Amino acid sequence: MSASSTACVLVVDDEPDLRTLYELTLLREGHEVVSAPDLAQAREWLGQRRFDVLISDMRLPDGLGLELLRELGEQQRTEKTIVITAYGSVENAVEALKSGAFDYLTKPVDLKQLRAAVQAALHSQRHPAAGAPRRGTVNDPPRSAPPPPAGVQALRRIVGASATMQQIRQRIEKVATSMAPVLILGESGTGKELVARAVHECSHRSDGPFVAVNCGAIPDNLIEAEFFGARKGAYTGASHDREGYFQAARGGTLFLDEIGDLPLGMQAKLLRVIQERRVRPLGGVQEEAVDVRLVSATHKDLAALVRDGEFRQDLFYRLNVIGLRTPPLRERREDLPGLVDALLQRICSESGQPIPTLTADALAWLQARELPGNVRELENLLQRALALSSGSHLQAQDFADPGDVDAGFTATRPPSEPVESTEPPTTQPDTIPDDLQSYLDEQERQVLLMALKECDYNRTAAANRLGLNLRQIRYRIQRLGITMPSDDDDSTT
Fold this sequence. Notes:
The protein is of the alpha/beta class. The chain has helices at about 15-30, 40-50, 65-75, 90-100, 110-125, 150-155, 165-175, 190-200, 225-230, 245-250, 265-275, 300-305, 315-320, 335-350, 360-370, 375-390, 395-400, 435-455, 460-465, 470-480, and strands at about 10, 30-35, 55, 60, 65, 80-85, 105, 180-185, 210-215, 255, 280, 290, 295-300, 320-325, 355-360, 395.
């Protein structure tokens, strides 16, 4: 181990044998170790100097390790704290993490996990500027540093100047520095995975993998093998050993998206892995230690699922150590212009096309929509408008589509322009259709087919006949599944 990765560690435990075991283990790693049998001695040491890492048993002769943890927080000390809890004491572990502990270990302590936890805590420690002393006296000011470059970029991708979004970015920076599980709640399309990636990129694990899993997309009969891996011959078709998500995320972050869709049987197995930090591959005999940071997300009301018996309360309690909420667009309308600019830049960069200007009418049209699909729906609307527009400006009419019953105006005129027609009114249907969208699609399909046949399936001529441009008619032909006689014939373009 290099000198730069060594730490000054304070070990607090009332059992002499265990205290000595921890000391010897860390000394062999090259760390400087100081020990104390109780809170009183620990406070005395902390009053004399600063440490990089504090390891404390939860129960001590003169109080709880949590007391020490809370005192460090009140004093704004920078020591990273690792709490040792009794086997199965989930409540104590969660309480420690909520109180600011970096990590926890369960008795009997696995020495390999102890070394890894100390190294991770040291990794995440906020170092002083280059050339400044590594440690000092208790009067030294708290040390701080900005997130790593990857974290800065990840935070910039969370667009929005509203107070809510500023608070989210600040909270991400704060929670990223521990191992505490994070639960992200929010409606579909609000950017939960973007927040999860930012938590990872701002953490000391940013060099490790980020593995995202959609819990609702895995067949029930494969879910255990997908999560924990499988040994050769464990099931039909298992011709070789394979890693699971926990092994693939080793040293990094495992993002469990749509955790509310996880079957109850798998919830029990996941809880056991979280508590013991060990997995047994399907068909395997030996358990393997896992080293992952868990971040979960769902658009569902997990508390309601717990009440209905569809989600385990103990697992919910274990996952919901740190909560983050991604707000829907209706709660931050002031962020819409900035989101539109950011999305247009990304979409155009990926497609290699110039970035158009959004007109005031187009922005007003977007502002007037409910956007229940949030940012995802906004992105889809922008992609459609880019496909239908014919110039360097995105107009309001570029966003509307005849098949969009919420458009509120025709596809070729903004809402403020009066619609005059010299054509006779269209024949009304004899009955109200059961599916309005399908009915409108069929009407549009028939009109397009009529125009195409009239123009011998020349798309350019048919587009002119209907007052569309070539890009618009191509989009409609593709969306409605209209088969052209020959897409290879240049005369039909």
